[in-house]
Amino acid sequence: MSDYRRRDDQGREGAANPSQRRPLEVIVDDRGVESALRTLKRLVLRDGILRELKRKQNYEKPGERKRRKIREATRRRRRQLSRALRRKDERW
Fold first, then answer.
1. Quick one: pLDDT band at residue 12, thresholds 50, 70, 90?
2. Is 39 exposed, middle or buried (0-12, 13-18, 19+ CB in 10 A)?
3. 20 to 30 A from 71, CA-CA: which of 21, 28, 29, 77?
């Protein structure tokens, strides 16, 4: 698999949202450009960079922003709870 890292080794903990992070850096190794491109696409998707760009194309009213943030938080909590329950079931 292609090697990747963030410049200055900032990682996910470095900033609150993806736009404040350093650029991604994907190293092309002996597997070639196609493998590195797949790795880059996966990283961009995971970090939510495209989603953020699409959201910033248009103005978002403060009320809409608040509702979106609540929806995202609810979804995050639901996913965390689901993962915790799955881990609990795996232990037993």
1. very low
2. buried
3. 21
